[in-house]
From TrEMBL:
Short name of any one Pfam family annotated for the protein: CbiQ
Gene Ontology CC annotations of this record: ATP-binding cassette (ABC) transporter complex
Gene Ontology biological process terms in this record: cobalt ion transport
Name of the protein: Cobalt/nickel transport system permease protein
Keyword Ribosomal protein: no
Length: 255
């Protein structure tokens, strides 16, 4: 099933990371995230080592640093939350630049920022080297329930269709002189949302009937060979394996 549109997160390429099967990359990112979360917050050097590993993956995938930095904006809510923790935290306090901050709050803020940042960067690299539709096929190969995968596929396929319909409805309203300025215009927006829901529901019914008429039995056909070789699994799992080695050293107290 084609997505039918270009995704800004994905960077087309032919690097060794791009060529890896999606199930390998999904499992590698999941394992890496688990290792990062399990790392004691006091092991600063371990987090630096994880960042180096991600940097090596980005270099191998030829993903520019600017591409990663621009998409890390999604982390801003976590950053704002982490910044507030030392201010409102309880317990022992220290003075930093004239501000009284909680020691435990500072540790918690560092823990959130370090682990969330590494997880976000790993996810960005996954999205940059794998098309969204292919990621879902990889999840299917990892035995994620077929129904969930199909729901996500249709959401991905028809999201832009529904957004285009929303834009057309907005243009139609504005061409008739309507402009939402205050709460009195909420009923008009609500009616538009209701009409959009009905159209989307009816489109879903038509698509489902069309699929049934073409022999749909609950499973979507996989057109491409998604099998992974031992070498590909080894390449993909090099990231979590390196992270696990770092975790082992940190737990052993060698940091």
């Amino acid at each position: 099933m084609s997505a039918g549109h270009h995704h800004r997160l994905h960077l087309p390429g032919d690097s060794v990371v791009h060529r890896l099967p999606p199930q390998c990359k999904l499992l590698a990112v999941l394992a890496f995230a688990i290792v990062v979360v399990a790392t004691p917050r006091e092991r600063f050097w371990a987090f630096a080592a994880y960042a180096v590993l991600l940097g090596a993956v980005a270099a191998a995938a030829r993903v520019p640093a600017g591409h990663i930095a621009r998409r890390m904006v999604i982390e801003v809510p976590f950053v704002l939350f982490a910044v507030l923790i030392p201010v409102i935290g309880l317990g022992e306090r220290v003075s930093v630049l004239g501000l009284s901050l909680s020691v435990e709050g500072l540790w918690a803020a560092w823990n959130i920022l370090a682990k969330a940042t590494l997880g976000v960067v790993a996810s960005i690299l996954l999205a940059a080297t794998t098309e969204p539709r292919v990621i879902l096929l990889g999840a299917q190969r990892l035995r994620l329930p077929d129904l969930l995968v199909q729901i996500a596929m249709f959401m991905l396929r028809y999201m832009d269709v529904i957004l285009d319909e929303m834009r057309r409805m907005r243009v139609a309203r504005e061409s008739r002189g309507f402009e939402a300025r205050n709460a009195r215009h909420i009923p008009v927006i609500a009616r538009s949302a209701g009409a959009l829901f009905i159209r989307s529901y009816e489109r879903g019914e038509r698509v489902h009937l069309a699929m049934l008429s073409r022999g749909y039995t609950g499973r979507m056909p996989i057109m491409a060979d998604m099998t992974a070789s031992t070498a590909q699994w080894a390449t993909a799992l090099a990231l979590p394996a390196g992270a696990f080695a770092v975790l082992g050293l940190s737990l052993a107290g060698l940091g």
